[in-house]
């Protein structure tokens, strides 16, 4: 198509959509004369290898979509003249190896999406000049080995996605200057071995995803300074051996995911200081042998998953203090031999999964007090108490059986205590228990029972 015909057809257009024109190899130089154009959509133009230098003349352009332009190897230097551009989408431009230095002149740019640019090895230092940038998406940039130090100049940046950047080994110290950053995604960055100490300066950060960072061995002590952090995902960090004591200072943290942290042997005592924590995921932590006594201080905790913690032998007595706990998963904890009597204090507990706890032979009598418990999973547990005949009857029968034994034991203990103190009258609590047992037995005899 010649320039004259092109201008006659689209000369006054505000939107030009050529998306899906798979055989389109080039655009006419007259493109730059479309002075009213605000949106240029070229997604999936698979044969397009480049853009004309006249692109920079599109003074009104705000949206440029080059998503999945497989053959695009570069962008013209004139790109930096697009003063009104707010969104630049380069997702899936798998042949793109570099970006022009003029990129930093895009003063209005708020969103830069480079996800899936597999051949991109570096970003220009001018990146830091993008004063309006709020979202930078680099997920799946497999060849990207590092980020420019100028990254810290992006004062407006709120979201940084670096997930699946396989070759990325670390982040610049300037990261801590991103005062507006709320979301940092480093999931599947399998070569990252550590994080800069400046991480703790990210005062606005609410979401930190480090899942599948297999080489990450530890976290900086400054982690505890992230006062706004609500979610910390450390799942599948196979080399992570410890957590900093400063973890307990994360006052806003509501979700902590430690699942599949195979090398993690213990949790810090400061864990109990996480007063806002609602969900703790620690399943398949193979070498975790115990939990800190401070666990009981997590008064907001509603879900605790310790499934497949193969070396866990017990849970602390303080477990009973978790007043809000509704879900407790201990399935396949093959070394777990007993549960604390305080379990019966979990008034809000609705689900308790003990399936495949092959070393567990006894349930605490206090479990019978769990009025809210509806889902009790005991598959493959070689329990002797309660007996199999009771277990087969389901949750109500199990709770009734345990409650009966719990009251009987409690009565005996209180009688013994009363005798030791040489009391003439039994304590009021003991009288209530005896009265209940006596009248329930009397009611049975009157109706022809035993």
Write a short abstract of this structure.
The protein has 450 residues and is largely without helices or strands. It has helices at residues 3-10, 388-391, 395-420, 428-446, and strands at residues 15-17, 39-41, 63-65, 87-89, 111-113, 135-137, 159-161, 183-185, 207-209, 231-233, 255-257, 279-281, 303-305, 327-329, 351-353, 375-377. It has one domain (3-402): Leucine-rich repeat, LRR (right-handed beta-alpha superhelix).
Question: Helical percent range?
Answer: 10-25%
Distance between the termini: 101 Å
Counting H and I runs of at least 4 residues, what is the number of helices?
A: 4
Class, according to the CATH hierarchy? Alpha Beta
What fraction of the residues are assigned to beta strands by DSSP?
5-15%
Q: In terms of quaternary structure, what is this?
A: single chain
Low-confidence stretches: 428-450
CATH superfamily: Ribonuclease Inhibitor
Radius of gyration: 32 Å
Instruction: Estimate the mean pLDDT confidence.
Output: 92
């Amino acid at each position: 198509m010649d320039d004259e015909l092109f201008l006659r057809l689209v000369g006054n257009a505000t939107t030009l959509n050529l998306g899906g024109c798979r055989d389109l190899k080039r655009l006419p130089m007259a493109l730059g004369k479309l002075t009213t154009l605000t949106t240029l959509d070229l997604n999936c133009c698979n044969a397009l290898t480049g853009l004309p230098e006249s692109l920079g003349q599109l003074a009104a352009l705000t949206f440029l979509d080059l998503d999945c332009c497989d053959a695009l190897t570069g962008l013209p230097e004139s790109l930096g003249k697009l003063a009104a551009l707010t969104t630049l989408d380069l997702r899936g431009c798998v042949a793109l190896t570099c970006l022009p230095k003029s990129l930093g002149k895009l003063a209005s740019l708020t969103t830069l999406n480079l996800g899936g640019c597999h051949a991109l090895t570096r970003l220009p230092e001018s990146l830091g000049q993008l004063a309006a940038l709020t979202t930078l998406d680099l997920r799946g940039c497999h060849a990207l080995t590092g980020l420019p130090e100028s990254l810290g100049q992006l004062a407006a940046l709120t979201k940084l996605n670096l997930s699946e950047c396989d070759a990325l080994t670390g982040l610049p110290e300037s990261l801590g200057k991103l005062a507006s950053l709320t979301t940092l995604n480093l999931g599947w960055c399998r070569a990252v071995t550590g994080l800069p100490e400046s991480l703790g300066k990210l005062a606005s950060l609410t979401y930190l995803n480090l899942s599948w960072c297999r080489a990450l061995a530890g976290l900086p002590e400054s982690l505890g300074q992230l006062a706004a952090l609500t979610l910390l995902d450390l799942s599948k960090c196979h080399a992570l051996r410890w957590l900093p004591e400063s973890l307990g200072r994360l006052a806003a943290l509501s979700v902590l995911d430690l699942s599949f942290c195979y090398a993690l042997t213990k949790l810090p005592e400061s864990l109990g200081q996480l007063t806002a924590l609602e969900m703790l995921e620690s399943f398949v932590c193979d070498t975790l042998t115990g939990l800190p006594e401070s666990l009981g201080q997590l008064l907001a905790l509603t879900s605790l998953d310790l499934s497949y913690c193969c070396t866990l032998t017990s849970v602390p007595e303080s477990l009973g203090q978790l007043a809000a706990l509704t879900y407790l998963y201990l399935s396949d904890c093959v070394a777990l031999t007993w549960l604390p009597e305080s379990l019966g204090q979990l008034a809000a507990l609705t689900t308790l999964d003990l399936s495949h706890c092959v070393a567990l032979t006894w349930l605490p009598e206090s479990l019978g007090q769990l009025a809210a418990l509806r889902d009790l999973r005991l598959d493959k547990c070689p329990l002797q108490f309660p007996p199999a005949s009771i277990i087969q009857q389901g949750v109500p029968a199990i709770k009734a059986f345990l409650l009966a034994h719990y009251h009987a034991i409690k009565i005996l203990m209180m009688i013994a205590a009363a005798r030791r103190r040489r009391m003439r009258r039994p304590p009021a609590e003991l009288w209530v228990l005896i009265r209940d047992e006596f009248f329930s037995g009397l009611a049975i005899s009157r109706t022809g029972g035993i």
